[in-house]
Amino acid sequence: EPFVADEYIERLAWRTPGGGSRGGEAFDPKRLLEEFVNHIQELQVMDERIQRKVEKLEQQCQKEAKEFAKKVQELQKSNQVAFQHFQELDEHISYVATKVCHLGDQLEGVNTPRQRAVEAQKLMKYFNEFLDGELKSDVFTNSEKIKEAADIIQKLHLIAQELPFDRFSEVKSKIASKYHDLECQLIQEFTSAQRRGEISRMREVAAVLLHFKGYSHCVDVYIKQCQEGAFLRNDVFEDAAILCQRVNKQVGEVFSNPETVLAKLIQNIFEVKLQSYVKDRLEEHRKSDAEQYLKNLYDLYTRTTNLSSKLMEFNLGTDKQTFLSKLIKSIFISYLENYIEVEIGYLKSRSAMILQRYYDSKNHQKRSIGTGGIQDLKERIRQRTNLPLGPSIDTHGETFLSQEVVVNLLQETKQAFERCHRLSDPSDLPKNAFRIFSMLVEFLCTEHIDYALETGLAGIPSSDSKNANLYFLDVVHQANTIFHLFDKQFNDHLMPLISSSPKLSECLQKKKDIIEQMEVKLDMGIDRTLNCMIGQMKHILTAEQKKTDFKPEDENNVLIQYTNACVKVCGYVRKQVEKIRNSMDGKNVDTVLMELGVRFHRLIYEHLQQYSYSCMGGMLAICDVAEYRKCAKDFKIALVLQLFDTLHALCNLLVVAPDNLKQVCSGEQLANLDKNILHSFVQLRVDYRSARLARHFS
């Protein structure tokens, strides 16, 4: 433990009798001083003893250090000597190794010609046997030495190729015959080993056959036997993938060039199995059923490309992508060349059939919408004047728009876009997609929506018709829903196919043109429908409003709050407002309601101008306008409500006391109105001609 002087002195004092208060003993400083002096002397003696011991140890340490340094110097000298010996030994070993290498080269130079000579001698011996016509060597008669025999006959066959035919024709024939026999035996041996599943034997035989001309036949046999029993299920593509997976694991253990063998197997599968399967499936429907043909073509091409993707994980050589693409192209090229013509032809006939089936279900004979100079002239006149040209058609409430028809057309087009994406060449994809889009525009937009708009326009009655049924808003509602679906398919399925091509601008322009064309007809139909609504209101007012309503015979006996004409007009307006809200969406609702509200206000304003008003009649007119204003609140259009507020304020001029006319006219709501308008309302009072009233207003 570390030495602490204070603790040491405390312990010493505690042990000394009289040095503390222990046990009630009195403190004795003399004894404590004596004890301290004695203890100091003991410590001095101990210090001297330890000092002598330290000096002795230091002397011993210095002596040993000198001895150790001397020993290290001796070891360094020994190490230098050993290092010199090692260098000499290394030089000697290098010298000997050089001599040995030189001797080895000399021996090899002597041995190689000797081995060649021995080999040549053996070949000459075997050649003599063929020359004599009798094969006596064990290597030719022992079936177990077929490997050695194959090596010999292969070399003899090469030699025989160099010999002149006229002198050695017979022996060349014998060697060729033996070469062929051995080749057949090796292939047969390979076949048997493959059937037994002996991979090591297959590898040995394949290595021997590698130098024979029949090596490719060996590979063909292997490929043929691999496929035995491999295609037993209905799914030829899955069977092919499983077969290639299995062969891929085995082929590397058998052949020295596994990627070539596997590529040849895949080529065989594509050119034999798959091509035959595809041809059978497609030719069955090619001329008789375009729909099934296109479905089968899409399905088979998709499954073939999926199989190709699975095969990409195998080692098939350097450019396996190009290799597999060529195989796929070789199978489908005759079908893909005219694919888009078949697609367009099918889409055209299918779309026409869907539309015709719908019109037949409605017992409707589709009328021809004329084209040419006269029709164009009518169209321009109608757009400028908004007049119905030609007789009105009673559609009996039928809009001739069907969401089911639209869904069917869009579904057919969606499938066509998917097939186009998969089956079209990348360079032709935008062009083909545009052709499909053109078919959709023709049958959905022109033949269905545009025809329904034309029919709806023709079905709108004239503005002076009584009890007219207005169905055009139903056409607007359905056309709006349908066009949302059309726009969604344009963005979801067409845009990805043309987004990076010049066809994008062409498609967008075509879409814009068709939208503008439909918007013109929708605007025209809505405008004429609003005119019809106003005409119906005018008819109600004409039929229900009596002159006595506002100039009753008995001023003191008026029991009604508002007139019957007002009740019926407000009921009719509320129904039309609700119908407009249900038929449109977004800002279109506000736009149409504002137009209807303005026309409604103008109608009521002009209607009120036709009557003279007594005091009680004026009060009743104010009640009517208050009810019209309450009806105007349903429009939720600030301008319309403001117009009726102003009209309500104008009606106050019919009942206000003559003395207060100027004050009312200068009020907040009437101050900005033209004085002629105010004067026209004051003139409607029955007491207008009184001098007092004329004087106050002037």
Descriptive account of the structure:
- The chain is mainly α and 698 residues long.
- Among the domains are: 102 residues; 142 residues, no CATH class; 146 residues, Methane Monooxygenase Hydroxylase, Chain G, domain 1.
- The chain contains 24 helices and no strands.
- Helix 10 packs antiparallel against helix 11 and helix 18 runs parallel beside helix 20.
- The chain starts with a helix and ends with a helix.
- This is Exocyst complex component 5.
- InterPro entries: Sec10-like (IPR009976), Sec10_HB (IPR048627), Sec10_N (IPR048625).
* Tally of separate helices: 24
CATH topology of the domain at 551-696: Methane Monooxygenase Hydroxylase, Chain G, domain 1
CATH architecture of the domain at 551-696: Up-down Bundle
Largest sheet: none
Order of helices and strands: HHHHHHHHHHHHHHHHHHHHHHHH
Q: Mind telling me the CATH class of the domain at 551-696? A: Mainly Alpha
In terms of structural class, how would the helical and strand content be classed? mainly alpha
Number of separate strands:
0
User: On the 0-100 scale, what is the average pLDDT?
Assistant: 83
Low-confidence stretches: 371-377
Distance between the termini: 126 Å
How does the overall form come out from the CA principal axes? flat
The percentage of residues in β strands lies in under 5%
Radius of gyration from CA coordinates: 57 Å
Helix content: over 70%
Protein name: Exocyst complex component 5
Pfam families: Sec10_HB, Sec10_N
GO cellular component, one term: exocyst
Family: Belongs to the SEC10 family.
